[in-house]
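We store chain and fold; example below:
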Amino acid sequence: MKEASALAAALPADNLSRYFAERDLHQAMVEARNGEFDDCLEMAARAVEETRERRHELPPGEKLKVLRADE
């Protein structure tokens, strides 16, 4: 988890891969709190993979707008 967090934090705040990695890390923490440690490790590994491979990229000038549940 610590490695995945550091890798995500090293990416720019508006980087789409950082966004997805942070979502995976959040889910990993939820799984850990529920005692699902296998799932926790899997989600943390996905976060590391996302930051290393940067699978999600936006074309220049485009931004991701994340809506809240009430929008």
